[in-house]
Amino acid sequence: MAEEINLFRNNDTEKVSQAHLVGSIAGIFFESPDSFFKVVLVDVDENDFDWEEDQIVATGSFADLQEGESYSFIGRVVNHPKYGQQLQVETYSRTQPTSLDGLITYFSSSVFKGIGKKTAEKIVNTLGTNAIDMISSDKSVLKGLGLSTKQQDTIYDVISQSDGMEKIIAGLSAYGFGSTIAARIFKKYQEKTLSIIEEDPYQLAIDIEGIGFKKADQLARQFGIGFDFASRIDAGILHVINEWYNNTGNTYIVSKDLVMQVSNLLEVDGQNVDLEKIADQVIELAKKDRIVGDDNRVYLKWMYNAELIIAGKIKLLTNQKDVKVPAGLFKKLIRNAEKKINVKYDDTQRNAILNSLKSPISIITGGPGTGKTTIIKGFLQTYADLHELSLDPNQYTDSHFPIMLAAPTGRAAKRITEVTNVPAKTIHRLLGINGNDSLTSDEELELSGGLLIVDEMSMVDVALFKKLIQATDTSVQVVLVGDQDQLPSVGPGQVFHDLIKSDCIPTVKLNNVHRQSSDSTITDLAHAIQKGQLPEDFTQNKSDRSFFTAHANQVEDIIEQVVDRAMDRGFSKADIQVLSPMYRGSAGVDQLNKHLQRIMNPPLQPNPKKIMVRDQEFRIGDKVLQLVNAPENNVFNGDIGEIVGMVSKGANQHIIVNFDETEVTYSKTDWNQLTLAYCISIHKSQGSEFKMIIMPLVNQFSRMLQRNLLYTGITRASSFLILLGEQSAYQTAVEHVASNRKTTLILRLTGIYEEDSSSELDDGQNVKVEESRVKVSIINNNVDPMIGMKGISPYDFMN
Ligand SMILES: Nc1ncnc2c1ncn2[C@@H]1O[C@H](COP(=O)(O)OP(=O)(O)OP(=O)(O)O)[C@@H](O)[C@H]1O
Fold first, then answer.
1. Residue 373 annotated as binding?
2. pLDDT tens across 222-276, in order?
3. Where is the ATP-dependent RecD2 DNA helicase OB-fold domain (predicted)?
């Protein structure tokens, strides 16, 4: 009997009585391409639970299950809402055939290619019922049976491989790896998996996406690996750069900062890794093509390449010929579009449409309400008329729709589809990337067709834009639309900002606001903030905005008063949106949500129906935010809805949420897709607008107080803006321009390097470096900007 394999470590399962099943695999219904998860049909031989049928479906993480082979399973019988009763397998083992007949059938099965019944009989008659164990421990027992060497190899390989793989999966599970990551590890190292992990767990952090330095370090400690082991330094270097990308949004780190941060990371009980040693490993990693050094900047290789690829493709696109649009024809086209859309474009808007019609690649940028969406509509109409195309997708039954309209988020794609009646997709979907695909891989994709429009470009990061632009054929005309003053992308880089700043792409900047009426003071405030000032009348009450002074601990009370008054005046929960820059603190999202829930959705009876999700209480009437894209339900990350029902279906409870016209039912496993939405972060509010915005800014938010955050927040208000907090916090925010992430896309596009590339270490850390008196050149910018590279120039490991 093979060793038992514990694949699941779910403590809950121990409380539930276990079900035992012995049976052979009748078929494999589903095999996850990127994990060990499988759904199989089992012919039941024995079972100790209530099941009368001949077959049962079993699910779980399995190695190479062989159809026809017999296994023994232990698990729980669950009731799947769609597929009914099935066995959720926790552990399983192969039941080796013990009868002579069983063994003969096994050896003559299709698993052993080239072994027929006669040969099988010979093996079993000679070796007996222990045949499998005997072969597994000593291949030579097959000699003298008249088998060819090939046949002997086949039998031995099949037996040891399936046994080996099961052992590896069990080992990975014992080290705490879940089924998806385990599959990724096994795919990479195959039969060497366990020896690699035990000898050098840092290899995992270097090679396997989803395994970080911390996990590898934890394993290494288990195996007693030294603190200055070379692989530990390598993994530390990659960890620091990745963290740097996530925390700063920069696309490179200055070498000196890198070495110091790695040194801090690797310190164990006051012992530091020699800086020179870290520098050596930086060079080693560069030689292995994992990182690139350029001047005194260090990049992950994919990031370095991404900037180069973007710049190269932009240059190729801008070198394409302009489309000829004679002035007379354009007048006719725009007149027709204006008639159809029922709008009169202003001069800048017309210019934007003409620019995009003519240029192989163009940019339209402007603040909220400047008409970007209205321009996309007009542009689509004029483009279609100019190229004699229909904008009706139904007309393209035999060919591709020639227009690709895309946005970085599902919500933005949905919105642009609704406004233009032209189908839009997320960029991921357009590129055919699913959640598991890596954006940093070099896999080639191809987008052809006449036109690509990307909306909400400010939210697109380097990795995604590289994929998109690399896939775009040079025959495609590209239009990039967005608001460059909004927050940059969540991922590293500031592509849209850099493309505009580089001046390489014909760009039209829109300044006239059409959304709010001309006497709107919100627009004036937005303009002032863009220029880095708070207007003199900032604290005065206006028809559409007000300011209330409040310390952090007064914020809740003032918001309560404002919300009460607004609700008395007929504003709904959906109309009023509170925004906060941070989650923590007394004026942060989490605290305000709890408070606002009591005000905006007070329980109407003593014991209302409620469901606890994490530490939040959900009740009917609660305003909730969708946290992930769920295209199958037509709801997307950032969508806001209201809980309209809580129902029990059998033993399960469900939450029903109404999003505009879409109602979505959430079963327990999906509840963590929701959070309360009375207050949301300013980041989450990007791309949405609300009738009334209430936004507190206090000095407590210190590092979040940035101009583009303030700008993004206030421009979400379509009619009323209530600001509160400390005026000095607003002043700090307006003065603090944080958008300039350190990137080199402009350098790649123009050959001009503008940014200050000096160290980002604070003074304290710099002093520490000086004090350490380590003789590496990195600590002195004047001597040599490279990391103790011992005569190796950065060009030695550049592309
Ligand atoms: N030339 C125009 N004349 C009259 N109204 C206009 C004009 N251009 C745009 N508008 C109106 O102004 C409002 C804002 O326009 P639109 O939604 O296109 O702006 P936007 O830049 O896409 O805004 P946001 O980025 O906030 O979504 C809409 O109601 C639109 O109909």
1. yes
2. 888 888 889 999 999 999 999 999 888 999 999 999 999 999 999 988 888 989 8
3. 20-97
* Domains of the chain: total: 4
Per the CB < 8 A criterion, the answer to whether 409 and 638 are in contact is yes
- 642 belongs to a structural domain: yes
User: Which ligand 1 atom is at minimum distance from the Cα of 346?
Assistant: 1
- Report yes or no on 45 lying in a domain: yes
Residue 217 lies in domain: 209-294
For residue 452, what are the β-bridge partners? 404, 478
In the numeric block, the tokens 């780190």 are attached to 253
Alpha carbon separation from 178 to 72, 184, 206, 207, 672 (Å, rounded): 22, 10, 18, 17, 20
Domain shared by 437 and 358, yes or no: yes
Together in a domain, 574 and 680: yes
Instruction: Indicate whether 374 and 501 sit together in one domain.
Output: yes
- Residues 141 and 57 placed together within one structural domain of the fold: yes
User: Is 718 inside a domain boundary?
Assistant: yes
| Distance (Å) from CA 340 to ligand 1 centroid | 16
- Establish if 666 belongs to a structural domain: yes
Residue 332 Cα, ligand 1 centroid: separation in angstroms?
A: 22
Mutate to test the pocket of ligand 1, among 364, 365, 373, 716 (most ligand atoms within 8 A of CB): 373
Prediction ipTM score: 0.98
Per DSSP, which regions of 361-454 are E strands? 361-366, 403-407, 424-426, 451-454
371 labelled as ligand-binding? yes
pLDDT beneath 50: ranges in the chain: 1-16, 436, 756-799
Residue from 338, 345, 374, 719 to probe ligand 1 pocket by mutation (most atoms less than 8 Å from CB):
374
